[in-house]
Amino acid sequence: MNPKLPYVLLVGAAAIIFILSCMLLSRGGRSPSCGSQPSVVENTGSMSQSLVFADLTPEEMSQVVRYLQGHLGVPLVDASRAKPSDNCIASVDVQVPAKAEVLRFLDGGGARPPREALAVLYFGKQAEPNITEYVVGPLPTPAYHRDVTVQKYGGKVPYHRRPTLAVEYKQIGGFLKSQVFPSAPAFMQQVMEYDGANLAVVTAAPRGFQSGDRVTWFVVFQNVSGFFVHPVGLEVLVDHSSLDISQWAVSRVFYNGQYYRDMAQLESAYVQGRVSVEKVRKAPWDGDFSSMKPRAPPAALFPVQFEPQGPRYSVRKNQVLFQGWSFAFGMSVSTGLRLFDIRHKGERVAYEISVQEALSVYGSNCPAGMSTRYMDGSFGLGRYTSPLVPGVDCPYLATYVDTHAVSDSLRPKKRKASVCIFEHNLGSPLRRHYSNLQSLYYGGLVNSALVIRSIATVGNYDYVWDFIFYQNGALEGKVQATGYPSSSFLHGDGLRYGNRLWEHTLGTIHTHFVNYKVDLDVGGVKNSLVAHDMAFEMTRAPWSPEQQIERPRLTKKVLDTEDQAAFRLQSKMPRYIYFAANSKNKWGHQRGYRIQITSFAGDHIPEASSMERAISWARYQLAVTRRKEEEPTSTSIYNQNDPWTPTVAFADFINNETITNEDLVAWITAGFLHIPHSEDIPNTVTVGNSVGFLLRPYNYYDLDPSIYSHDGVFFTSEQDFTACEINPLACLPKTASCLPNFPPFTYDGFRNM
């Protein structure tokens, strides 16, 4: 052996160690943490001004409750413990001031409108039980209250119309457990294997067939994870119209296709062997097929979005600023997420954009399913706004905002992280062009938009509510539906009403309709509604008169009245319809904002139906009316439990008034049909279940405002496109090579349930 060989090997090994060490130091060292730079945000409004729209603070809510307790002269029971025969505060929300007052304050240097609350009270302990609405103010130290019920609704609101409190459902559950189920002991033990805790019930609505009814079908399910798709075949019709709980009674019972007078009759028939029994296999606690627990182990992490130089938007209390956009936001107990004073480039384009209602109409051969028409505003799209999970419901590094509510309780409840705000790179260009003719260049702009989101979980369904702000001045309102499909017990001709999802589970056919209020103020408060479209005209070719050309031409029409501006669901609507300002752009065109609807809605319900007027907003894909303070919403929370005599009927808003050069509101309806299918197990995905609308500038600007975006990219064939000063994308290895600061994962969605 060569004596020099060990030394050679040692030197070689040392060299390899040195090289590897250098590689580890250069490659394996931690990248710097992502820093931040001053946000490029235009100052387009005052935060203090936006507070005129702000939700009530917990302190203000508590002040209102204390004031009402001390000034109404009647005892108020906490709504979480109230019997139907008690007086209680059902909800407290902000009372948004009249638009004229707000605009005097925002634009005219007028006084700030007094801050007030709207309180909804149930007076069950009165000679004539009723629902009363009070405006309470001024906040933060209330000194007055006024009854606005008659002013708003033309009369007192009957007590039977009250939305059902959580405690009433609890009381009905106790009634079923203590009185109803024990009256059929053999059936409940042998068929349902009932142990006092293994069954859950879900309400149908509305509650009966005529005004004054409060008679509700309750569907019985196995009490497991995802119980909505575990029906057991039993449904019970409960008459809970009496204010005396001891007088509640069962009106009818349904089991596996057969109707019975009550549970005692079902028990008798069962004991005599006259009941066709379909015993459902007992599901494990996790629900088995309905479990949302992943069936695969974790693998490579999904892509994560981050901001290498910090957020480019700002959130200050209830105001958001982003790339020329500014707006105020809030959360209504009944209708959920809403926006006010929406401005682009400092100019107001909309005063209010808000959700009004979410409607579902079901079909089935079971009684609850066939009679269900859910109006989710009555249950509370804001009340049931759920805490958001970072990384799934919203990007992990989004800004999360808590909201508060007084609902079903005397104490304000915090809804932790119930709104999220984030900038979203959609992964596609907002606009681009690659030129390979004449000059050679590339120009483009990434489509990065701001999103504000909330998610309402109303029973089985989860609604993802988005408002999206684009750099070209467009604004989108969108809702995506997910959650569990509602189901019936599969029997008889059930497949006429849906698809079989599991052994005994019928996924019932249903519709989704969503209504929005869009109060556009384009170039000022006074607007007109204009329709543009296309028609073919036949002409002779000037250079060859013997030849005919069919050429498209522009059609124009001003829609003068509310009747002309009410477009039924199945009617043909002009493809370009826009709010026109009383000003023109550089090219002589009326400045406008166009309404573009994305919807797959069919019929909402036959107009001959006795309850159709309660949801008559759903007749129209678009209806434009004069704005009136006495027409603030297209529906009412009281319509659900008395649709036969609706407290608010939107059809009455349309009375052929002139809408030229007036303050106008667009009421937009979007919807889709859902026929649940096997892929809705374990639950429904958002893909394909999304509808909404766009508001797009139409000759509003002299050119696309996004050309002034800081995100633009442009380079020619003659430039060094690898240089940062020419092409900002060339800087990404430097500007984006950082580690985002991901805070520890937290979630408060299971606290204080």
TrEMBL record:
**Keywords of this entry:** Copper, Membrane, Metal-binding, Oxidoreductase, TPQ, Transmembrane, Transmembrane helix
The record, for PROSITE patterns, names: COPPER_AMINE_OXID_1, COPPER_AMINE_OXID_2, PROKAR_LIPOPROTEIN
Q: How is it modified after translation?
A: Topaquinone (TPQ) is generated by copper-dependent autoxidation of a specific tyrosyl residue.
Q: What is a single Pfam family found in this protein's UniProt entry? A: Cu_amine_oxidN3
Record Gene3D superfamilies? 3.10.450.40, Copper amine oxidase, catalytic domain (2.70.98.20)
Occurrences of domain Copper amine oxidase N3-terminal (ranges): 162-257
Where does the sequence pass through the membrane? 7-26
Q: Which GO terms describe its cellular component?
A: plasma membrane
Q: Please give the cofactor(s) recorded in the UniProt entry for this protein.
A: Cu cation
Please share the entry's free-text remark on the cofactor: Contains 1 topaquinone per subunit.
Coiled-coil region(s) at which residues? none
Pinpoint the Copper amine oxidase catalytic domain residues.
305-707
Per its record, how is this protein called by name?
A: Amine oxidase
Q: Which organism is it from?
A: Thryothorus ludovicianus (Carolina wren)
Which gene codes for it? Aoc3_0
